[in-house]
Amino acid sequence: MILKKIWYNSVKLFLRISLNFYAKEIKIIGRKNIPKKGAILFAINHPNALMDPLFVTTFNPRENHFLVRADVFKKPLIKKALASLNLMPIYRIRDGRKQLSNNEEIFNKCFNILAKEQTLIIFPQGGHSRDRNIKPLSKGFTRIVFGALEQNKNLEISVIPTGITYQNSSTYPSKVCVQFGKPINSRNIYDNNEKAKAINILKEQVSHQLKKLTVHIPDDEKYKETLQKLNAANVDFTDVESVNKMIQKQVFPEPINKKQNYLKPLFYLILANSIIPYFIWKKFSKNIGEIEFVDTLKYGINVVTFPLFYILQAFIISYFTPSKYAIIYLFASVLLVYSYTKLAPVNAEK
User: Fold this and answer.
1) Do 27 and 165 sit in the same domain of this protein?
2) Are both 58 and 167 inside the same structural domain?
3) What is the pLDDT averaged over residues 64-84?
4) CA–CA dist 118, 112 (Å, integer)
5) Which of 6-10, 16-20, 94-98, 262-266 has the lowest average pLDDT?
6) Residue 36 three-state SS
7) How far apart are CA 274 and CA 234, in angstroms?
8) How many domains does the chain contain in total?
9) Burial, 258: exposed, middle or buried (Cβ in 10 Å; 0-12, 13-18, 19+)?
10) Dist. CA 33–CA 35, nearest whole Å
11) Residue 292: its pLDDT value, please?
């Protein structure tokens, strides 16, 4: 148990550092809404595959468990690695109807996690989507919450809606905003309403908060027009409250030109210094079936190959020159990437 906790916290620290090489700015809002003790279910929107839980758990003081789509667990080595970090598979119809029976075991694990007053991360929309709105929520997360409450009469579960917003997904560098909403007292809802009504109330309260915690453009005939106006004005989508006011009032800034990237030469220097990791990424990128997984695969490959490649090159340099030059090269390589990440402009989509 101690070794697992050391492993989990070590990976969490590594992710916290490495995500700052992925994102120019990471805004964390509402962290004070997270209770230090007690069972919590984080209900998150899901625009960017595995990047979403990484940001939520890394900048979250509690140790978290996740439900993740089952097809990510296909390879045994990946399955073991993910399980060691508290990730669990959830099966969908597209995984095969026979596989759905495995969810009973997963639900029981979730009940036990909450009964132990630990935390669980769930995506109540049931799938990922790049659309800048909150889709109707499935009732799967309510089944877990109310199932745990039914089995444990004295259990209290705080449901915390959590919004995550990206300035422009699949671009580097990125800007990200994570907002933790106000805890919802699920026990109060469960005890004072019939089950069907309690499900609807909890879904409605979570949905209502999510529409404020991330940018929400109603999915109607004005959706595309509204999104085009926001992108044309190059708004900062991570300023969620401001952008949502524009949407509600249908008043938008005038279109402006995108910010020029005068640091492009620095980017090409980094590319030249990281040519093998770049070609590894290009090879794997050809097999990406869903756009939502672009960032996940890019981050996953780069966070491993870049450090290893820089260390390897530093080792080669140390073989032919005094070791101080290898150390200078290693620090300079890392500093170049960090500097570009923090200084390069991040525009809205085209």
Assistant:
1) yes
2) yes
3) 77
4) 9
5) 94-98
6) coil
7) 31
8) 2
9) middle
10) 6
11) 80
Helix (H, G, I), strand (E, B) or coil at 273: helix
What is the chain's mean pLDDT, rounded? Answer: 92
Same domain, 200 and 269: no
Q: Please, what sign has the CA dihedral across residues 198, 46, 224, 236?
A: positive
Q: What is the rounded average pLDDT of the residues 208-212?
A: 98
Q: In whole angstroms, what is the distance from residue 249 CA to residue 226 CA? A: 11
Q: Report phi then psi at 152, rounded to 5.
A: -130, 95
**Is the same domain home to 201 and 73?**
yes
Domain identity same for 196 and 297: no
Residue 157 domain-assigned?
yes
User: Are 188 and 180 a contacting pair, CB within 8 Å?
Assistant: no
* Residue where the block lists tokens 């597209």: 94
**Residue numbers of the domain that contains 281:** 264-343
Whether residue 98 has pLDDT greater than 90:
no
Domain annotation covers residue 167: yes
- Helix, strand, coil percentages in the chain from 3-state DSSP, rounded to 5: 55, 15, 30
In a domain, 80, yes or no: yes
Is the pLDDT at 50 greater than 70? The verdict is yes
Instruction: State the residue for tokens 């109330």.
Output: 201
What's the pLDDT score for residue 91?
72
